[in-house]
Amino acid sequence: MTQKTVEEAINYxxxxxxxxxxxxxxxxxxxxxxxxxxxxxxxxxMQLWEFYHIxxxxxIQKIAPLCFNQNAxxxxxxxxxxVTRKDxxxxxxxxxxxxxxxxxxxxxxxxQSSREKVSRNYYGKLIPFAYSDFLxxxxxxxxxxxxxxxLFKPIFREVRNSDMRIVAHKTCALAAENxxxxxxxxxxxxxPMEGSDTWRVKKVLNxxxxxxxxxxxxxxxxxxxxxxGERFRIPFEEVYTEV
Length: 243
Known about the structure:
Layout: H1 6-12, H2 27-37, E1 49-54, H3 57-63, H4 71-74, E2 78-84, H5 89-103, H6 114-131, H7 137-149, H8 161-185, E3 189-193, H9 198-205, E4 212-220
Antiparallel strand pairs: 1-2, 2-4, 3-4
Helix pairs in contact: 1-8, 2-8, 5-6
């Protein structure tokens, strides 16, 4: 099968609700597409995500009712659950610091380049400032501080716990889009599903309390009736503005 170009993959991708049970997909190829999802751009390279590749028919049968038995889940060959892990920020911050150590072998501050100093300061101080919180109290104090500083200069304002949660979900959604376009390029079909009982899905997957489900993406090969009509978008001129 010839791989599609980016434009072809974007045009081919549709939210497919009914998959053909006679047409199987290659789990190794799906895994490759999940790897490509992990290459998506993400906030501060923190990679606060995890990807659960569900190939077990038994597990799919457990999850489908939790997606309200919608056809996209019930007829899926496989599922991929995109999960945010904001709770892992310290671990991922340290991973970035280790990467910096590989790029810049540790040396006295006086011998560090400006790029190294900025990088170490970013992950050593700014990231902990942005992600640290305690019962919302520190987040509120940060918010008040930002309000005052923001009166005098431009500043990053989304520093509360709820703000960083949104950042993690935006990042994870970028990975999900990478995955769906990668699948489309291979001629495979997907459907992103937000309609699910996320608490019960977390229990099925034995996810920790700090994990949150961003979306569940079903996978397979479409039946003709699996695409519910022609693609509809409002006129482009209504959403496009050149400044």
